[in-house]
Amino acid sequence: MRGVILQGSSKSNGNTNKITLFIKERTGFDIIDLKSKNIGPFDYDFKNRDDDFLPTIKEIVENYDTLIFATPVYWYAMSGIMKNFMDRITDCIKVEKTTGRKLAGKKMGMISCGSGSELKEGFTMPFIESAHYLGMEYLGDIHTWIEDENIPKQLQSDINVFISEKIKREGKPKH
Ligand SMILES: Cc1cc2nc3c(=O)[nH]c(=O)nc-3n(C[C@H](O)[C@H](O)[C@H](O)COP(=O)(O)O)c2cc1C
């Protein structure tokens, strides 16, 4: 099975996308742009059950064993698009249980993209704890940013190390 980058930015071709494309090039992972999907917030009466969430999560669990959550930093936290997606995983625990169970045993990584090198403490916690809760293996995370429209050189090399040591432990990154 393959890997997929779940891109949670409010701009399909923004800064987070620059990072996801860089990672796709080095891993061969697919990208799912969550902004292009119609995924509503969690609803206790599951009123959004006919939107794009279920087909999207089914596509993910059937085709991929490594899920990389790529989110911009908006107000010190993951984006709303990413949070909606995470909240909707609850649909898989309460209703679509067969799909939910298939998340167990898969791997999760996380990439944040902010305005600079600083990431406030606690940002990664929801990903780490959600992975544990879902029985997924947490591979690790890396914080990224864009300077003058580009990924800074040192960060490029840090991302390459992250890929080879955490994400694609069996393979070497292309340079
Ligand atoms: C609504 C909003 C909130 C933001 N809040 C933060 C923040 O708390 N910390 C930070 O470092 N950058 C913040 N930024 C800057 C973005 O994280 C940064 O520009 C990022 O690279 C944007 O990625 P994108 O183009 O994929 O949206 C914010 C940007 C927006 C639009």
Automatic annotation (TrEMBL):
Recorded source organism is Aquimarina atlantica
Recorded GO molecular functions are: oxidoreductase activity
Q: What is this protein called?
A: FMN reductase
Record keywords: Flavoprotein included?
A: yes
Q: Upper lineage ranks?
A: Bacteria, Pseudomonadati, Bacteroidota, Flavobacteriia, Flavobacteriales
Q: Any idea which UniProt keywords this protein has?
A: Flavoprotein, FMN
Q: Where would I find the NADPH-dependent FMN reductase-like domain in this sequence? A: 1-118
InterPro entries attached to this UniProt entry: Flavoprotein-like_sf, FMN_Rdtase-like_dom, ISF_SsuE-like
Instruction: Say if the entry is tagged with keyword Flavoprotein.
Output: yes
Q: Which PANTHER family match?
A: NAD(P)H-DEPENDENT FMN-CONTAINING OXIDOREDUCTASE YWQN-RELATED
